[in-house]
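Example 5.3 — Mitochondrial Rho GTPase
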Amino acid sequence: MRKDVRILLVGEPNVGKTSLIMTLVSEEFPAVVPYRAEEITIPADVTPERVPTHIVDYSEAEQTDEQLYQEISKANVICIVYSVNNKKSIEKVTSHWIPLINERTDKDSRVPLILVGNKSDLVEHSSMETVLPIMNKYTEIETCVECSAKNLKNISELFYYAQKAVLHPTGPLYCPEKKEMRSACVRALARIFKVSDLDNDGILNDHELTFFQRTCFNTPLAPQALEDVKNVVRKNLTDGVRDNGLTLKGFLFLHTLFIQRGRHETTWAVLRRFGYDDDLELHQDYLFPLLKIPPDCTTELNHNAYLFLQSVFDKHDKDRDYALSPEELMDLFDVFPYVPWGLDVNSTVCTNDQGWITYQGYLSQWTLTTYLDVQRCLEYLGYLGYSIIAEQESQASAIAVTRDKKHDLQKKQTQRNVFRCHVFGITGSGKTGFLQGFLGRNLVRQRAIKEEHKSYYAISTAHVYGQEKYLLLHEIFPDFDFLSETELSCDIVCLIYDVSNPCSFEYCAQIFKQYFMDSKTPCMLIAAKSDLPETKQQYCMTPLEFCRKHKMPPPQSYTCNTAVAPSKDIFIKLTTMAVYPHITHADLKSSTFWLRASVGATVCAMLGFAMYRALLRPR
Ligand code: GDP
Ligand code: MG
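Solution (predicted structure tokens):
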């Protein structure tokens, strides 16, 4: 909303402009007034809309035309005052004042006008009959009002209307010529409807309407009021109410009615609550709230956010098959201005037999976006209405910023849930097969993936001592000379060689020696394509000897050339090493470590349980 409002009063001499201003300020009719009142500023807290308001007078006797034009261009709203007992002053509204103002303002951003008929105390009849045709002709006229400075009639109303015309303009919402809402407004309201339709059945039922009312207006809706609203819609529309709930058509009709009855501040309140600015675009503060992420920290979704995303999934998984069909996915993205997920997403996360993103895959993709591009994640959550539906202060409250990894390493403990694994290997060594194998796809299913839908990422979950963790695999393009800082920073490294290709191990050895030998990041050597006959690697040592020498676990055989889904064992091992990077490779082999680690996990789990109980206990 605007920070202040500037109201200018114009009109013929002696219609009562100065008297109106003085009456507003002093609450009594002044017997004598100057030609022109000083500019006054009404502080925010005494105006109905809580915005500082400047009121500016005009006097032909004291001001030049140039000064008038300047004031016109500075004004946010202009009141054209006439005197109800003075025909000539009414005529001048159309013959002089409106053209003069319009000449000085842009056609697309016309300043709203208010017609003010002053001195209503002097006549019996109303001037409305004369004024209505003018209102119909000039759409920039927001409203008209008759008042009397002398009787103090409609004075505060006049300034309230002026303020409202600026703060809640009808222009962006409604097209007076066509007598219907503008398409941008319909689009915004349709999105709001969709977000508020919690069960996605196309109807706002009583529960959803009550929630909507509370979110937008902070007051509950009385049961009778709820019925009244529905009855109004029923009376005017055949399909505005269905199954005792409001359809989109009914919802849009209600807003048209609000606007037509001059209650467009109601519609504005709804739009603003759902993040829209004055141009009916989602506000930057709404989509991109400030979020500080210190170096060496990562971003994850918190429990609340997962619950919300789960509810979004549920409302779109209409056939309850725990996967989103292309239609269901499109329906989910209906509240987005563009489709955020390309087909590469299907090869980044788990899908079902039809290739549709599963529940697990859906949450994985969200986890990936949050981890790799948190700004995008915030934006997407904004489109879904997270902060509104989950009743949070902003989209930023969905994000958990983890503590500095150095701290984790020091304390030998981590609260993180997402771990990043970089996969190195020469072209054709089996990196993609490894990534896709993590998603449960064997070689046959991998061959079905089109080139343009391939992904360098794969994300899914792995259980580490009963706790679900996300493992994010990232295939690194084999280029020796250009490994950037981000390509090197991860929680665990996979070095892949092809057992059937004698030249593939050397690259792993070189990458290890050049980049990871002295780093704290644990490394694992993967002997891929283990279903093929093994050949001797062209290197001064065998892979096993290399691992021994550098205190790495022995090479892990892997194949995705399987009849069923490839084994997940290796990914559980990788995740475990990523979660517990401080353990030595000897530890990994010894049974006592596993025991110790699992005892640790139980303690954690019990602690969690106790905290949960404490939370449940009434205060
Ligand atoms: P301006 O030139 O438009 O600023 O008009 P003024 O405020 O100077 O008022 C012109 C004359 O109209 C003064 O004599 C006022 O007392 C009188 N006047 C202003 N408002 C009213 C009103 O509401 N009723 C009546 N009866 N007289 C008014
Ligand atoms: Mg005056």
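Remark. Residues 591-619 have pLDDT under 50 and may be disordered.
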